[in-house]
Every structure is written in structure tokens, then in C-alpha cells.
Amino acid sequence: RASSAGCCCSRAHAGSAREPLGAAVTRADAAADTEERSEGGISFEYHRYDELRKSLVSVWLQCPSISRIYTIGESFEGRELLVLEMSDSPGVHEPGEPEFKYIGNMHGNEAVGRELLIYLAQHLCNEYQRGNDTIIDLIHSTRIHIMPSMNPDGFEKAASQPGDLKDWFVGRSNAQGIDLNRNFPDLDRIVYINEKEGGANNHLLMDKKAVDENPKLAPETKAVIHWIMDIPFVLSANLHGGDVVANYPYDETRSGSTHEYSASPDDAIFKSLARAYSSFNPIMSDSSRPPCRKNDDDSSFKEGITNGGAWYSVPGGMQDFNYLSSNCFEITVELSCDKFPPEDTLKMYWDQNKNSLINYIAQIHRGVKGFVRDLQGNPISNASISVEGIDHDITSAKDGDYWRLLAPGNYKVSASAPGYLTVMKKVAVPYSPVVRVDFELESLVERQEEEKEELLDWWKMMSETLNF
Amino acid sequence: MAPRSLTPVRSLLLLVHMVALSVTRSGSMPTLPVPGGVADRTLYDRGLSEERPLQEQIAQADSVSQADPADSERLSNPKASQMDPDNDDFSLLKSLAERSRDPDNETPDAEDPEDRYFTDDSDSTKNRRLAEDYDSTKNSMDYKDQDDTESFHTVDGTPLTAEDIVRKIATKIYEEDDRGVFDRIVSKLLKLGLISESQAETLEYEVAEVLQELIAKNAKDNEVEARNSDYPASRVDEDEDVGEDPELDSDVLEIPDRKYDDEVETEDSEDGEDVVDDNWNPANEVDHREDGGSEDGLQDLQYFPNFYNLLKSLDSEEDAEERETLITIMKTLIDFVKMMVKYGTITPEEGVSYLENLDTMIAVQTKNKLGKSLMTPDVQPPTEKPSDESDNTKAEAAKMQKEYESLKDSTKDNQAVAETDNAGKSETYLEAIRRNIAWLKKHNKDANKGDYDLSKLRDFMDQQVDSYINKGILQKDEGEVIKRIYSSL
């Protein structure tokens, strides 16, 4: 909680009468005793930038064989946008291994997500070392990227407010006053047009180079866009505060009205993914939960999930940008009625969300996945994977690997690439685990050669028979 | 910007916080006490159980380097020093930290009562070595003729509990007939920032209770009656009225000990004080200590080149008190290490590496807090103090002292926090690295892969650290600390 000294993370300001000692020395004791303030090296308090950095470094130092810290760039005020990556070979994309990301605190005053991601990083490391098989499997089979704060500048501003009651807006935007979740190129507009008039249904970001030259984009936004372009993310969640719900695409309404259910082509799997998060959060999934504020309209919330447009229209958001510019499916999770709740509630939020956070990562192993190769076994990158009945294609990554999240059902999945003949396969997809479907594509040239061969053979045979 | 020189108070704070937080927080070993825990026994004991696993982790951590045989010998043969006068209250402090010890807790060094460093009380400070031989319990034992109430181990060597310690404090107060004992101890702890006011109060109540019991129990012998339920108000009016000079409370820490020592020796307490004062003359002390230090203490100081430099820069008169405190703290720490090595809790190599880590952190924190670099840890202990710094130190010391005084109350918490955070940061890193090492050992053992390759890990970490520094993920000093920790494994 913030004191007037402006340090909401001060250990001396434990904020709890239970801890008489100012020094952190007995904190571990007190915590072990009360289980309130820390758990296995996780201290449930707000982390300012340096403390955040320190926490991530500590996780890395404890688990250097499965983690790595990197930065995707700097905020406007020069703070690093830090990411902690966890996988069995950090720094490396293993072919076939899906990539996951969590992004928190893009609104600087929505603080719970930031903290939960720090706790999550430590927790994953601890559990891995404790031999927790679920976590070990998850880390071995997934590459997990955790960015606790996309807007560290905003957070500092919000955290510097004295007292527990933080303003609804102070610290929300970045240091330039830009609301990062309205700052992404608006690809929804384009896809809505394409739906009507025909056109691409995926990878709609026209000019990637123009991103850097676009003066309207905040440095944080640019950094994230590059990040999305560089790494073949499959599944993602973006953590917010101010309400309690799991929100899925599309965020921007088709008609432009303020509230309208705007389903994406992948509405079915998105609902399933959102439910996968909310169902493990007792508050979020409680359908009889009263709204956060008396006059809130939460009529669109069902079982703890909501379509974005049905709740309220959000243009230029990061969630839809992911879906429409890349292969990544992202949902938005609102974690707390209070955007910046008192520090002593953080442990409670961790308890509420811990299982959701882990279970949501595991959703990445659903649907179909595999490799697209040519007949010689060489990977074909940027091949298109289409699913009949779903007007949204995804593409294969550099090693020819692809991951197509799908709700349970029977599907016809096709792989195609320029210069190759399309191959279609029928697949029955369960809830889980993921079904492995590989494609071997024959190039057109090869087919032509083949046909020519056949023709010659036939001619030869005819000649011999007819004695030409 | 922080003053360039090492100011006494700041270095004191620095060291204390670093020590208290680093050492205890990581649980690397019990350190100067946390008597707040006395109030809540379960809390207190649980702290032990938290520390212990980490001690085991230290025990598990590979130490590649072989300990210098002389060093290990030094570690394992704590010598008896005539530090009783200085040690007395510190033995208490130390014991408060050594809550539960190995059962094999026989009187330390009962079998090794070497006295070569101290010919007599009056000279002891002059000859006193910095990092050597501060085994208070042992001294107490020797000196007090194995008296149970004076030592902080039970006679049969079983570990003390919190209750025991409270009882011993109470007993001592009772026997000395001097509430000042308690005040001295508590004021030191408060001054060092190791306990809070409320914890001091709690301790006081605890001691008061026990003291009352004692008094009641011995009422018939001592013909003392009607004790006030309010401890502070009740002074035991004994036959032996010590009449301690209250001024000593705020002075150099060892004085009360010495005084106590003198009393038992039936010296006149006033004389004892005078002797003490003379002996505590900073100028003399500095000269003698340096002589003694550089000759006798070289062996020890090679583990503390940074600390040694820190002390050297505290050469002004105002710094004397702080210097003494620092010395005492370090000696206590070293004693702990020696004891742990002696009892087999850790190997000598681990003890050495712990001390080296400590020294590293001194360097790091000194640099952080005071903007001054001590010598690099690899260098031999210096043979002369840097003369240009001494002038700075004096001028700055006075300034800092004033600044400190004015700031002390209002910003104590913030200062504590800032330093806590800084020290805590290194400690957190140390803790995290230890966890990794522990896991590696266990992991490799389980998988029967044999020992993990420490040098490869170290190289890898060094590389990563450099890369992180370049990218702005780690600060340079943090990187150094991490590398150093790894290199000491």
C-alpha cells in the first residue's frame, strides 16, 4: 500500500500490526507463521520497477536452467519492458513447442496483474524444483513468456499516490498520456470490411515497416508489435483490473455501436479458453456475484466470461490486434473490481487466480498441431492452415510447425502454400490433448514433372505395343 | 550525492543492516539476535527451523576451493581471548541468536584455553585482533568458572531455548543487581536497529516476569520483599550495589562487559571504567590495533580485506565508537562461523566462503551506500591506510554525524528500508542462487548423473550476467555480486 513517502512496497510499512519489526529480517518468520505475506520466496506486496526487476532476477538465479530474462524494449521513460521466459531450453524455439505469453499492467494503475505475474514466475520456479509434475510437464512442453508490466511508467505514477484509495485514471496511460489498449492499429475495421467484400481473414497488418515510423504509436506499443511479429505466439492473455471477468474477441463492435455481441470466427474456442480461465477463479465464475459497482451493466457476463463487443466496444486494443495480425489467440482477463487494491489483498488475489493462471497456460495444448513439410521433408514456413467452417487461417512458423486451437469436434483441416498442392485431412478433435497432424505437400513443379514422366511412360508403352 | 568517504554512522548502519539482513534473511547462519522473537516463542523457534534448512544448504553447496589449512585450523580452534569484559553482553546477544544449537554443544574451547593474545585486561584492547577469536561463550566459560548462569549454554551443552535466555538475562540482572544490564543490551540492539521499540518492551516484560520469579523464589535468602510489579521501577536492593555509571550505557559496547568483568574480579568499578576509557582511546587503539591486526590478524583479514579497509577509514575520534561496534559485530560473526565449523554444521570451506561472501557484500554495499570503493576482494590486505582518505573521512564524518543525527529519528524507517532493500537485494540473490545449487545437487543425485559441472555453470552464469548488464536487466554492481557469489562456490 502506498504511504505518504510514496513507497508502497516499503517493507518497513508492513501495513500490518502483526509485524512489529521494521526490518525484513523476521518477515520470513512472520510469514511462515501467518502465511500471509510470503510463500516460498514470494512476498505478497507491490513491486516497484526495481523490485520487479529484482524479483525476476531472483527467479532466474534460482532457476537458470529453465528461465531467461529479456527485454523487448524501453518504455517512454526508459524502463525496460522485461520478460521472464520459462522453458526447458530458454532462449530457443524448439520446433513444435508452442509459445505462450502473459502481459500485465498495460494500464499502469491496474496493478493486480503485474503482481500476479511476478508471483507466478516465482511459483513456477519453486514448483519445478519441488518436482511438481504438472509444472514440469508444462515447462518442458511450452515456452512461457511472462511480462509483468507493459506500462511500468504508468505504474510508478499510480503507485506514487498516497494512501490506499487510488484514482481510477491516474497512471492508466503511458508517460505520454496514451492509452496503450487503444493504441494498436485497428485491424478490426479491416476484417469487417473483408468479411463483407472478400479479402484476407488473417495477418492483416499491412506494412510492418510503417510501424516504426508511425508517430502515433507509443514505444510500448511498438515494442509489443515487434514482439508479436518475432515470436510465433499461439495463446496469450492480457491482464487488467477494474472488473472481474474473462473477455474474448472481438472487442470492437461490427456496427460501431457501443454494445453488440461481435463474434470472431473462433468464437467457440475463445469461449472455451475464457471459461478455462474463469472456471478456476471462484469469484470470477460465481454467477451470482454482484457487480463491482452498483450501476455496472454486467448483463453480458455469463459464467465469468464475456464477448468484448457485448460488454463495451474497444477499438485499437491489443487483444484483437493479436488475433488479426498473427496466429496468437489472446483474451483479456479482468482480475479485480479495484484497479489498485490495498497491498494486503494481494495474497488473496494470488490464491484466487493461481490455478486459473496455470490452467490457462495448459490450454495451449489443444486442437491440432504438427509440421508442414515438402516431400523431401523440408519444412515449409508460412504455409496456411485452414479449417473448414472457420473463416480464420493460421500459418506455419519457420520450422514448418503450426498449432491450431480448436474446440472439440470433427474438422477438415487443409494445409496450403504457394507452389504446392493443397492437402486436406479429416480430424476428430477432443477437448484435449492436442492431435498431431502433419502435412507433406507436393509442389506443383514436382507434380508436373510426375505427370510428364507418366505421359512419357505411357507413350513408350504405346510405342512398343504398336511397334512405332 | 552521498559523501565520498566512509562515515562511521553510515558504515555502521551499512554493516549492521547488511549483516543483520543478509545473514539472517538468508538464514545462512544465526546472527545478531532478533529478540522480537522472544515475545512469540513459536515465531522465534520457527525462525530457527527456517534458518536451519538453509544452513544445510550451505553445507550442501559445493566449495571447490580447498580451505587453507591454517585457516581451517583457525576456524576450528577458536582461541580463548580475554574478551570477557567486552564479551559479556555480547555473549548474551550472541546466544540470543544461537537459539538452538547442535546438541553437541559442549563448552566451546574448554579444551583450548589459549591466551596468547591477551595478557591482561588493561591491554586486551590494544592487542585485540580484528577478526580473531571472539568467542564470548568460551570466554565466559573460562572466566566464570563454568558458572551456569554466566554461560549461554546449559551445563550439559544442550541448546538454549528462548525461555532459557530470558531466564539468564533475568538472572544476570538479579545477580548484578543492576537493571542497567538489560538497558545496555537493549539499547545496543535498538541502536543497531535489530529490534524495534515494541520488541524491546516485550523482552522487557519477559525478563521482568522471570526476574520477579527469581526474586520471589529467593526472597527469603535476600530478604527482599514487595517487589513492584512494574519491572523498571523495581531495583533490587542488594548487598552489592554496583552503582554503575549510567553514562557507560551509551558508550562503547564493551565497556559494560569489562565493567562486569572487573566487578567479578573485585576490582573497583570506577577503576575499571577508567582503565576501559584509557584503553578505548581511539588513537591508541587504532595504532595498537593496527599493529596487532596486521600481524596477528592477517590470516583472518585476508577474508575481510574490504572490512579491513572500511575500518581503516574510520580512523577519526568520532568514529571510534562505530568502529568498535563494527569490530564487535564482525568478531561475533566470525565466531559464529568458527563455532559452526567446530560443531560440524558447516565445513571449513563453507565457513570461509561464507566469510568471503560477507566481505564481498561489504564492498558492494559500501560502494552503493557510500559511493566509495573498497579494495577489490582479491587483493592482499593493505599494509597502510590511504592517507588522503583520512582527511576526507574526518571532515565528512563530522558532517555525516550531524546529518545523521538530524535525520535519524524521522527517516530511520526509510533509511532502514532503503538499506534493507539494498542489502535485501543481495541477500535475495544469494538465497536464490543457493536454492539453485541445492536443487542441482538434489536433481543430479536423483538422476544419478553425478555432480553437476560447477565450473560450466559458473561460466554460463558469468556470460549471462554480462549479457544482462549490457541489456540493462542487471545493474553492474548486482552483476558483480552474482559473479562473486558463483566464484566463491
UniProtKB/TrEMBL annotation, chain A:
It is found in: Cytoplasmic vesicle, Secretory vesicle membrane; Secreted. It catalyses: Release of C-terminal arginine or lysine residues from polypeptides. GO terms for cellular component: extracellular space; transport vesicle membrane. Residues 45-364 form the Peptidase M14 domain. It is a peripheral membrane protein. CDD domains: M14_CPE, Peptidase_M14NE-CP-C_like. PROSITE patterns: CARBOXYPEPT_ZN_1, CARBOXYPEPT_ZN_2, PEPTIDASE_M14. It comes from the Eukaryota. The keyword GTP-binding does not apply. Its EC number is 3.4.17.10. Its cofactor is Zn(2+). GO terms for molecular function: metallocarboxypeptidase activity; zinc ion binding. Its main location: membrane. The active site is at 334 (proton donor/acceptor). InterPro entries: CarboxyPept-like_regulatory (IPR008969), CARBOXYPEPT_ZN_1 (IPR057246), CARBOXYPEPT_ZN_2 (IPR057247), M14_CPE_CPD (IPR034232), Peptidase_M14 (IPR000834), Peptidase_M14_domain (IPR050753). Keywords: Carboxypeptidase, Cytoplasmic vesicle, Glycoprotein, Hydrolase, Membrane, Metal-binding, Metalloprotease, Protease, Secreted, Signal, Zinc. PANTHER family: CARBOXYPEPTIDASE E, PROTEASE M14 CARBOXYPEPTIDASE. Belongs to the peptidase M14 family. This is Carboxypeptidase E. The lineage of its organism: Eukaryota, Metazoa, Chordata, Craniata, Vertebrata.
